[in-house]
Amino acid sequence: MSKDLPTPDRSQAHDGTLPEGRVGIALIGSGRMGAFHAETVSLRLPHARLAAVADPAPGAAERLAGTLGADGAYTDVTQVWADPAVDAVVIAAPARSHADLVVAAAAAGKGVFCEKPMAVTLADADRAIEAARTAGVVLQVGFNRRFAADWRAARALLDAGTLGTPRLLRSLTRDPGGFDPSRVRPDTIFLETLIHDFDTLGFLNPGAQAVEVFATAGALVEPEWSDRGLLDTAVVTVRFDNGAMAVAEACFEAAYGYDVRGEVLGSGGMATMGDGRRTGMAFSSAAGRVVDTVRGDQELFADAYTAELAAFVDAVRTGTAAPVTGEDARAALAIALAAAQSVRAGRPVRIDEVER
Amino acid sequence: MSKDLPTPDRSQAHDGTLPEGRVGIALIGSGRMGAFHAETVSLRLPHARLAAVADPAPGAAERLAGTLGADGAYTDVTQVWADPAVDAVVIAAPARSHADLVVAAAAAGKGVFCEKPMAVTLADADRAIEAARTAGVVLQVGFNRRFAADWRAARALLDAGTLGTPRLLRSLTRDPGGFDPSRVRPDTIFLETLIHDFDTLGFLNPGAQAVEVFATAGALVEPEWSDRGLLDTAVVTVRFDNGAMAVAEACFEAAYGYDVRGEVLGSGGMATMGDGRRTGMAFSSAAGRVVDTVRGDQELFADAYTAELAAFVDAVRTGTAAPVTGEDARAALAIALAAAQSVRAGRPVRIDEVER
Amino acid sequence: MSKDLPTPDRSQAHDGTLPEGRVGIALIGSGRMGAFHAETVSLRLPHARLAAVADPAPGAAERLAGTLGADGAYTDVTQVWADPAVDAVVIAAPARSHADLVVAAAAAGKGVFCEKPMAVTLADADRAIEAARTAGVVLQVGFNRRFAADWRAARALLDAGTLGTPRLLRSLTRDPGGFDPSRVRPDTIFLETLIHDFDTLGFLNPGAQAVEVFATAGALVEPEWSDRGLLDTAVVTVRFDNGAMAVAEACFEAAYGYDVRGEVLGSGGMATMGDGRRTGMAFSSAAGRVVDTVRGDQELFADAYTAELAAFVDAVRTGTAAPVTGEDARAALAIALAAAQSVRAGRPVRIDEVER
Amino acid sequence: MSKDLPTPDRSQAHDGTLPEGRVGIALIGSGRMGAFHAETVSLRLPHARLAAVADPAPGAAERLAGTLGADGAYTDVTQVWADPAVDAVVIAAPARSHADLVVAAAAAGKGVFCEKPMAVTLADADRAIEAARTAGVVLQVGFNRRFAADWRAARALLDAGTLGTPRLLRSLTRDPGGFDPSRVRPDTIFLETLIHDFDTLGFLNPGAQAVEVFATAGALVEPEWSDRGLLDTAVVTVRFDNGAMAVAEACFEAAYGYDVRGEVLGSGGMATMGDGRRTGMAFSSAAGRVVDTVRGDQELFADAYTAELAAFVDAVRTGTAAPVTGEDARAALAIALAAAQSVRAGRPVRIDEVER
Fold it and tell me: Which of B137, B159, C200, D36 has its CA 20 to 30 A from that of D268?
């Protein structure tokens, strides 16, 4: 690390001490992200163990639990609440079930790591936050970019004052394409994709609150979607109460792969995040110089996914605060809902206009 | 150039043939850009010669003409119209005088290169375009980025079809700061700074027309300006009739210097422009690896400024069409006016709402 | 990963299956690298467990074993050979003891991972290789760069034929300085530092054998060392039997931190490795654009150190061949010895001139 | 330019003043480089004019002179010496005629710009230097890298003391291939290609003298050349009297185009030169991110070729010293001759062993 740049912590909770008892984790939802998180818990976290997997699809939980050596395999999530070997849960079920699962897990006294979005309405978000607070359990939300090296390094510059006051911010997400149209709703791009960017903008503008949102969006990748009101490309402008202006962009298809970037222009300078490089290798041939680039999120954010779960396990073990809170999730959700409303209304929408 | 990337023309009108008679150019306005253009005409363009300089400030034209060996030095611009040694003019006077000067120059039968903005109302823009058309003189506008290597290379990828259909575009301008507040009006950031970005967005989305504009802006560099309605930072969203969405950003101060960048995400991939490097040299020390970066526009765009004037001289010499037209200038102006109106109204503004 | 670039395996032996019994590892030598390897075994390898630590220094093994929860803590290495919980050893003791430790470990039937150099004479290297072969145990040497992402990606290009036949190679190592002169001998720079580069050159020129070596070296960081024959900076030219020419460079002090790079020019193009970036974050300020760079080997090669031990554990578990062999270590050693001899003789030295 | 990095002069002798009389230049040799230099003199240098072209090939001089508007077109070079319109000459004839041409031009009182190598023996180099000194004419040699932005920026860091004392240097040249074997002699790679790198090493190690050279070389691009003793690939180690060690590399074919790079590791840090980028544009597609790279020397060094001739014209006009001297050319030649001798002898060769 350069001397002038603060060193963010890369320790990922590997503090060099021996685990005294591992935190028992149940995975709820065994889809793509669920299976990845289960593998992380099972293989990459010295202080955790995979206690159970739950998935309503017949056989799904059993298969994953079998592969990874978890004792419990449930089709009924209430079995998770009842399992004393489960200290905490990782929720990777469909988005619309998240808030109810958070509430139920908290009621059962389990620590909760919930994939984003934590909720799809502000009322649900408030309910989830309240449930965790009442139960006194840890509630952490899966905004993994906060744990990615580039973003941590930029935030460290903000915290050190080096970047000064943020003026212009940018965060973008582009997926490599090949998505399943049947899983896309009109607000998917805001609630499931851009929600990361909305959280990132807050992470990179610490202490500020979003005030007003303007969104424009369309079906550019799949023009025939337009009739069904579906959106695959969006640009969202966010104005914050400290005057900073931000742009969040998303597109469901980039021909070149997976692309996540960020940028902060502050009074002290600019930090850019996300150079898209997979390795530092470059190949020069008659076709030019080709930089080795990332093609998928689990590749780009492998370390970040491990780090966020390691941090969660630590919070559960040590009783310390989660590094990404339900309140953080609520703030990002409010922007997402305002963006969806802005597209429908064709005008800027104030955050305080968003319905609970 | 890589084999897969089309090779844009770098010839800058140096076609290897001897000039048969040089085009006589008069510089109107001897300020920072005017003096720079005069030097370019005098020293870097084999097919042109600096015939005269005009500036109402006593002694200014004489000083510059003396240094660069121009015969004419006028305080009254009508002397330029009457000077038979002047084949064409380069207008670098204050923005609000541009349209009238274009009309007068055209009436005098002089070719016209006009710094941006060509006009500050659509009516004036139409008047300037009409005057040049009627007189049959060349009219070119100073959107220099179209001649900068990065932007030409990106446009070549678009023209070759490699980038596919544009979906998301970005163009930004950040000045190094130290500007004079007394020269800033409420619409300066749109009419004089972002006008470049609005033109660039059109250049990188060929054939498309802007449809709707939403702008948010503020005084973040100089917060005390807010009371006077002045703006130093802005984010503008532009929607085009081919569905593409674009963001233009500007800030009057970047701690790190001058920054101009562009980005096009098309169906075939992404082109990025403007890496900010001054040379390919990098210095690694205890402070990290420092890349040699640009600090001013005349440094970043030195070649582009020469190329745009070389292209203008060629158009005048050979009677061919100007590569950047009055219509291009009008299109960028319409976006700029819509952006200014959007800030005042706090809502998106359609291009067809902008008053002539 | 780009479609045109082969995808090297990043799996690090995390194959998603549950460990059935973990390989018991003893760490021999609890210095800087030993402690780091012990931590890796203890915390980052799901298929291994730290069974014991051995170090002759009173209390050293106990301290490390205590921190990491290893059962055995020995001051006498023979206790390791006798410990039935130890399936394999990681040798991180002083270089000159390596060969004897390999021989003893093999005799005890333990798998052996040996830090470089495996031996400091060819006779010792042969003895170590023979001991492992006779005992039928795995013998792997700690050339970690073979597991680093950049180098694997370059090698994948070679294996795929994309790079063609190697013509010119480069490998360099620069330490951040602050070394302890009392630990440096005249041949340290060749046997302990450049040995990595010599192995890398072989790794990037697969199947070729070094033929002749010319080295020039000096004490440039610490000029007063010259009297004692010590060397802190060296340039070594290596000619291979396929005609390829290579340069290995080392310096014990780079003001900017730790720097390891590689380059292969083949008939099909060039691969470069080691961009020195710690993250993809860049910070632009009045001082220019600063790239976030690496400052230490354990930071740069964190993943590679884990991957080499994971591969070793896999070889021990599954009885498969080690990915870096004693023969590889011998080949690198032969170049190192020839280089040291070349400096003494002031002339090129053929590999077949090096004494056994 | 970054504040911490010294700003090299980019002015290229365009000092903003009007030329009072242009320096009359004759081009000697109308081949590829000659024609390029003639075009530069004719079109890009406000203080020079192309007075004549000389070439023994029937019609060649006339053709080039006709295209560029030079008055004189000679097949006999003595006509140049006699032409009073010729103030100075640019020698771009075959290398082996350079020294005689320098001597004759100096005798005729003409200023001399001589392409590299100025001579092919040390005796000839001394003769050329002496002739220019006796005649009191400017003698400049075509080491264009000294005028390239990256190299000037690195040298500025050296001059400012920021880089400290050089320890390790690297300079390399790779041509894009497609060369004509009939024009290659055994020492071509040293005398015509690497001579640039040898000069660069001196430029980047100011004040130091080369002491010893070791070269290894072969015919790797065209293996069948080996029988004829021809060389297309070489690695040369140079030791300087200040202890610094340097590597110069060359290859007549790089699949990816033209590649010239430099590197200095000093006690204060490292400067790298030559990032190979043609523009700052990058294109990301399914094939990865492709950087826009240079493919030819006249593209890479366009500005440097103009700058070196501008500096020469200035030296002639103002009577100031040439920025690259005959002594510089002699120093690079001595290394080249030592390298050729080293390959023949298979051992390091001291500079003082090279025959005059």
Answer: C200
